[in-house]
Specification:
The complex is a heterodimer of chains A (378) and B (472). By secondary structure, chain A is of the alpha+beta class. Chain A contains eleven helices and 20 strands. Chain B is of the alpha/beta class and 472 residues long. The longest helix of chain B has 25 residues.
C-alpha cells in the first residue's frame, strides 16, 4: 500500500508555476523500459507490454507507471485523441470549454478504468476526439500541428487542475502513480490492441509523485519513455526555450519529446540524424571519416551541440510508423533489442523480452549511441 | 628623509636584505630596471632605495643566496576606513605632478568576484561521473556564426551536408590568448604566443599593434585585431589570420553608431573575402546585453566581452578602477538576451578579463561563453608578478617592455612551453570537472546553468545569472 504523499495536478502545477523558470527543481529518476513493434502493422494485445514491464517490477518504486499505444483507435483514426487528467469535475469543465473554443468535439467520454487494489486517488480521466475548427479563433498563421501543440500548452498552463497527457491521432498514453502492472490493469489495457507499444516503470528519487509525472511523455504523435538522467538538461532546456518551447514538467523526458518535435518536425532532420544530435559520434571518430561525412557530422555537432543529450540514458520513442531505441554515447544505461518474426522488442533487461518472447531469433545489446530504428514495412 | 618629495616617503615596499647572506654579487643591481639596488663605492656593498621598489620581486627571485625579501612597508598612516592609504598616496602624487594617475593590469579593487560565488555540481548516485583518463572527454570548440538548422542528404546511410556554413575558428580547447599588442609586450612573447597557439590548436590575438611579417606563418592560429588606432592594419595583415577582431576603445573614429559598425564588419569581411569570422570586442558595461544584441544583428560572428579585471598595459587608474561592470554579470546577461531574441546561434560569445584558473573557465562556459580569452594568466605563466607597472615600459621580467636588454629575458621557446603547459594543465582540470558533472563534451556545459549554484548572492543577482542558490 502506497503511503507516500501524492500531489494533485493543481498542487503540482502550483509548485512549478509559482517559481521563476530557472528556480524550478528538476525531476531525477531511474527506470525500466519496454517497447514492441509489429513491422507489418498487425495488432498486439495490451497484455504483452503489461506482462513484460511487470517483470521489471524492481526497476520502479511505485511512483509511476505508464504505456503508450499506437493504432488503438482505428475507428477515430483521423481525430486528435486527447487524454486528460483532472483533479475534479470543475477542472474538466474548464478544460472542455477551452477545447471547445479551438476544436470540434466528436466524442467525449471517460477513459475506461477498473478498480485496482494498488491504484488509488486517481484523478478524473477523460478523453476527447477532436478536429481543428475550420474558423480558428486565433493562431491562424500556425500549421495545424503547431496549433494543436499551442492549445495543449494553453490548457496545461491555464487550467490549474487539468493536464492533457496525450494528444496524437489513433494513439494514446495511459499512465499514473503506481507500479506499471497495476496501471495496466487499472486502464484495462488488455482490452486494447495496437501495433506499437511502449511501457515504463519509474523510480523517481527527488520529487513526490503526481499522475502527470509518469512516463510516457507525448507531443502530437511522439511518445517517449526514458531511463536515465540527462546531465545536459540545463542547456537542452534553454535551447528549447529559444525555440519557444516551455518546459513545464521539469523532466529530462519532456526535453527529449520537445527536441524530437523541433529536430524532426520543424527542422526536417531524419530520425537517424536526430538520434545523432542526441548521441553524436566522438570527434576522433569524426576525424577518421571520409571528407563528406566528416563535414556533415562536424556541422551537426557545431550547430546542434545544445541538443546533445549528455549523461546516462536509454530512450524509446515512437510515432505511428516507427519505434526507435537509443543509448547515450558511452552506454551508461541498459538497452536490449530482440527480433522474432515481424516483431521487434526493446527493453532494459532481456528477461523482460523473454517473458513475452521466450525464444527470440536474434537478441543483442545495441552499441553506445547507435540508434535502432524500426520502421513499419508498408 | 626630508629632502625627498612627499610621495616618495610613503612608498609601498621595502627591500629587506640579509647582510649575512648577501655576497655583494650585484645581481640585484643588474636585474632591477627601476634602479632600486646600487653599488655604494664608499661602503663597498650593495645598497637599495626602497622608494623606487615596485614590488616585482625580480631581485628576490634571482638573488643567488636568497638574501632578499620584498615586504610591504610596515609604516602605517593613522587608521581611517574612509581615507585609505591608497587615496592619500594618490593625492600626494597628483599634487606633485598634476597629471592623470596611470595604472596597469586589471582592476585590483575589492569589487565582488562572482566566480568565487558560484559553485560547480558533481554527480552522485543517480548519474555516474566520468573518468577522463578512461573515457573520451571532448573540449573541441568552434567559434563563428551557426545557422539555426541544417539540411542533410543521406546516401547509402551516410549523411552529406547541404547547408553552407559560415567560416569557423576551430579550437582544441575553449581557451585563447588575449589581445596583447606588439608594443605592450615584446616580439619574443608574440613568437611564444603564436607558437604555443599553434602547438595547442588554439588561437592568439595580435592586439592592436600590427603583426610582424615573421609571424604570418602562424596565420591559422591568429586573430588579427583592428583597433581604434588602426596600427598596422592593411590587406596582408587582415588576410594573414584565421579570424579578425574589431575593438572599441575611445573611440574608433569611423564607428560612431551601430550602422557604422555594420559597415566596418562588412568591410573586414569583404577584405578577407568572407574567409574568416569577424569578432567584435566590447567592454562589459551597463548595457552590454543590448549592445551585444546589436552587434550580432550587425553581422558579427563572435562577440568578445572584456571585463574590468582584464589587464591593460596602461590606463588611467580612475577608469580602470571605476568604469564598467563585472564581466560575469555582463556575460550572463548577454547570453540570456541573445537566447531571448533567438539569435544565440548566430554568434559565439567569448569572455575575457580576469580568468584566473580552470574553474573560472568552467564557470564562464556554464554561464554561456563559448570560449575564454586569457591574458593576465598567460603573462603570469611567463613570470609576471602583477606589480602593475607595465606603463613604465621597464618590466624587469622582460614582458611588458621593448628595451632590448630586458626583452631578452624572455626566451620565446621557454615562454612557449610555459604557455603550452598552462593550457594543457587547465584542460586536464576542465576535463576532470566535466567528468565530475557527468558530462563528456564541452557543448553540454555551455550555457548549462543547472550545473552552477550560487552562495551569498541576492535575488536580483540570482535572476541575472539564472542560477539557483546553493541548497536548491
Amino acid at each position: 500500500m502506497l503511503k507516500e504523499r501524492i500531489y494533485s495536478i493543481s498542487e503540482y502545477k502550483q509548485k512549478i508555476f509559482s517559481q521563476k523558470e530557472y528556480m524550478r527543481e528538476k525531476d531525477i529518476s531511474g527506470c525500466g523500459l519496454f517497447g514492441v513493434i509489429n513491422k507489418k502493422g498487425q495488432p498486439i494485445s495490451g497484455c504483452v507490454p503489461v506482462e513484460a514491464i511487470a517483470i521489471q517490477h524492481d526497476r520502479g518504486n511505485g511512483l509511476g507507471g505508464g504505456f503508450a499505444a499506437y493504432g488503438i483507435y482505428p475507428d477515430l483514426a483521423d481525430k486528435y485523441a486527447f487524454h486528460l487528467m483532472c483533479d475534479d469535475q470543475h477542472s474538466l469543465d474548464q478544460a472542455e470549454s477551452l477545447l471547445k473554443k479551438y476544436f470540434d468535439i466528436h466524442l467525449s467520454e471517460a477513459i475506461p478504468t477498473r478498480r485496482t487494489l494498488n491504484v488509488m486517488d486517481s484523478p478524473i480521466l477523460w478523453r476527447f476526439f477532436l478536429t481543428v475548427k475550420k474558423d480558428r479563433p486565433s493562431w491562424n498563421f500556425l500549421s495545424e500541428e503547431d496549433y494543436v501543440v499551442a492549445v495543449v500548452m494553453l490548457v496545461n498552463k491555464r487550467v490549474p487542475g487539468a493536464y492533457i497527457f496525450s494528444s496524437g491521432k489513433n494513439m494514446g498514453a495511459f499512465k499514473g502513480v503506481g507500479f506499471p502492472e497495476d496501471i495496466g490493469e487499472f486502464y484495462r489495457l488488455d482490452e486494447y490492441k495496437g501495433h506499437i507499444w511502449t511501457a515504463h516503470n519509474r523510480f523517481p528519487t527527488n520529487t513526490p509523485g503526481w499522475w502527470g509525472g509518469a512516463h510516457p511523455f507525448t507531443i502530437l504523435d511522439w511518445s517517449i519513455v526514458h531511463n536515465g538522467e540527462i546531465s545536459s538538461y540545463g542547456i537542452n532546456k534553454r535551447y528549447l526555450c529559444e525555440h519557444k518551447y516551455e518546459c513545464t514538467l521539469m523532466t529530462d523526458t519532456e526535453v527529449v519529446a520537445y527536441l524530437l518535435d523541433l529536430l524532426i518536425r520543424k527542422h526536417g532532420l531524419s530520425k537517424k540524424m536526430a538520434c545523432k544530435v542526441f548521441a553524436p559520434p566522438f570527434w576522433d571518430e569524426i576525424d577518421r571519416m571520409e571528407a563528406e561525412e566528416r563535414e556533415a557530422y562536424t556541422a551537426l555537432r557545431m550547430v546542434y551541440g545544445s541538443g546533445l543529450l549528455n549523461g546516462p540514458f536509454a530512450i524509446l520513442f515512437a510515432d505511428h510508423k516507427s519505434l526507435v531505441g537509443l543509448n547515450d554515447r558511452i552506454k551508461l544505461r541498459p538497452l536490449i533489442v530482440a527480433e522474432k518474426g515481424d516483431e521487434v522488442f526493446m527493453a532494459s533487461e532481456d528477461c523482460s523480452i523473454r517473458s513475452v518472447c521466450p525464444d527470440p531469433e536474434k537478441l543483442w545489446a545495441p552499441k553506445a549511441g547507435e540508434p535502432v530504428i524500426v520502421e513499419l514495412e508498408n | 628623509m626630508l629632502y625627498r618629495p612627499i610621495n616618495q616617503n610613503y612608498h609601498d615596499f621595502i627591500v629587506q636584505r640579509d647582510r649575512e647572506l648577501c655576497i655583494n654579487c650585484r645581481v640585484c643591481e643588474r636585474q632591477c630596471s627601476y634602479l632600486v639596488h646600487y653599488w655604494d663605492e664608499n661602503r663597498k656593498q650593495v645598497m637599495h632605495d626602497n622608494a623606487k621598489c615596485v614590488g616585482c620581486h625580480r631581485c628576490e627571485a634571482l638573488c643567488p643566496t636568497g638574501a632578499i625579501v620584498i615586504r610591504h612597508n610596515p609604516s602605517q598612516f593613522r587608521e581611517n576606513s574612509h581615507w585609505k592609504p591608497w587615496f592619500i598616496k594618490n593625492v600626494y602624487k597628483q599634487a606633485d605632478g598634476g597629471g592623470v594617475l596611470l595604472g596597469a593590469m586589471g582592476n585590483p579593487q575589492p569589487y565582488p568576484i562572482y566566480w568565487d560565488r558560484l559553485l560547480l555540481d558533481a554527480s552522485q548516485v543517480t548519474n555516474p561521473s566520468i573518468d577522463p583518463l578512461r573515457e573520451p572527454m571532448e573540449l573541441r570548440t568552434y567559434l563563428g556564426s551557426k545557422p539555426d538548422s541544417l539540411e542533410f542528404e543521406e546516401k547509402e546511410g551516410k549523411p552529406s551536408l547541404k547547408t553552407k556554413l559560415s567560416p569557423q575558428i576551430k579550437l582544441n580547447y575553449p581557451i585563447m590568448f588575449s589581445a596583447m599588442s606588439y608594443g605592450s609586450i615584446n616580439f619574443n612573447l608574440h613568437i611564444a604566443m603564436a607558437r604555443a597557439a599553434t602547438e595547442l590548436g588554439i588561437v592568439y590575438n595580435t592586439g592592436e599593434g600590427g603583426l610582424h611579417p615573421d609571424l604570418y606563418q602562424y596565420g591559422p592560429n591568429t586573430i588579427v585585431q583592428v583597433a581604434s588606432g588602426r596600427f598596422g592594419v592593411h590587406r596582408d595583415y587582415l588576410n594573414a589570420a584565421e579570424g579578425s577582431d574589431a575593438l572599441s576603445p575611445a573611440p574608433h573614429h569611423d564607428i560612431y553608431s551601430i550602422e557604422d559598425l555594420r559597415q566596418l564588419i562588412y568591410a573586414l569581411k569583404e577584405a578577407t573575402e568572407y574567409r574568416v569570422p569577424v569578432s567584435v570586442k566590447i567592454a562589459a558595461v551597463h548595457n552590454a546585453a543590448a549592445i551585444a544584441s546589436g552587434i550580432v544583428r550587425a553581422g558579427a560572428d563572435i562577440v568578445a566581452v572584456d571585463g574590468f579585471r582584464g589587464g591593460t598595459g596602461a590606463a588611467p587608474t580612475m577608469i580602470r578602477d571605476n568604469v564598467g561592470i563585472p564581466a560575469e554579470l555582463a556575460l550572463a546577461a548577454i547570453d540570456q538576451r541573445l537566447r531571448d531574441e533567438g539569435i544565440r546561434n548566430r554568434a559565439s560569445v567569448v569572455i575575457a578579463g580576469g580568468i584566473r584558473c580552470s574553474a573560472d573557465v568552467v564557470k564562464a562556459i556554464a554561464l554561456g561563453a563559448d570560449a575564454v580569452y586569457i591574458g593576465s594568466a598567460a603573462l603570469v605563466a611567463v613570470g609576471c608578478t602583477m606589480c602593475q607597472r607595465c606603463y613604465t615600459g621597464k618590466c624587469p621580467w622582460g614582458i611588458a617592455t621593448n628595451v632590448p636588454s630586458l626583452a631578452r629575458r624572455q626566451n620565446p621557446e621557454i615562454a612557449k612551453q610555459k604557455l603550452v603547459n598552462l593550457v594543457r594543465g587547465w584542460a586536464h582540470e576542465i576535463e576532470e570537472m566535466l567528468g565530475g558533472m557527468g558530462l563528456n563534451s564541452i557543448e553540454s556545459l555551455r550555457g548549462n546553468r543547472e550545473k552552477l549554484r550560487a552562495v551569498g548572492l541576492n535575488e536580483v543577482e540570482l535572476d541575472i545569472f539564472g542560477v539557483k542558490p546553493a541548497g536548491r
